[in-house]
Write a structure and sequence with these properties.
Length: about 110
C-alpha cells in the first residue's frame, strides 16, 4: 500500500504532463467515455492515449470499466475518479514525512539515519 507521500508524488507525476491534464479535463467536462472517442476529441493516437490513461489510472485519478456495446464490441470506458490534491507547505511537509524513500538531503538535522 503506497504511503500518503508516495501517493502525492504519484498523482503529481501523473498530472505533470500536458496530455494527461487535457485527458482529465476532457473526462471532467464530457463525463464517462471510451478510448476511441476520447482519442478523436483530443487529437492523439489511441496507443498514446492508453499510455496516458494507464498512468492516470495507476495514480488513482481515473477509473476504467470494460463493457460490451449493443453490437458486441468491447469498449473500455474511462471517467475521472473523485480526488483532491491540497498543496500547502504544511500538507507537503506532512506528505514528505511518509515517503518510502527520503533523500538524505531533506532529512532533519541530527537524524541518525542520514
Amino acid at each position: 500500500m503506497p504511503t500518503e507521500g508516495d501517493q502525492v508524488l504519484d498523482r503529481l507525476a501523473a498530472l505533470a504532463n500536458p496530455h494527461r491534464l487535457r485527458v482529465v479535463a476532457a473526462l471532467q467536462v464530457r463525463g464517462r467515455t471510451y478510448v476511441s472517442q476520447l482519442a478523436r476529441e483530443l487529437g492523439i493516437s489511441r496507443p498514446l492515449l492508453h499510455l496516458h490513461l494507464r498512468k492516470l489510472e495507476e495514480a488513482g485519478l481515473v477509473t476504467s470499466r470494460l463493457e460490451l456495446s449493443a453490437d458486441g464490441k468491447a469498449l473500455n470506458y474511462f471517467e475521472v475518479a473523485p480526488f483532491e490534491i491540497a498543496l500547502t507547505p504544511s500538507s507537503i511537509a506532512k506528505a514528505a514525512e511518509t515517503l518510502s524513500v527520503v533523500p538524505s538531503s531533506i532529512k532533519p538535522e541530527g537524524d541518525q539515519h542520514g
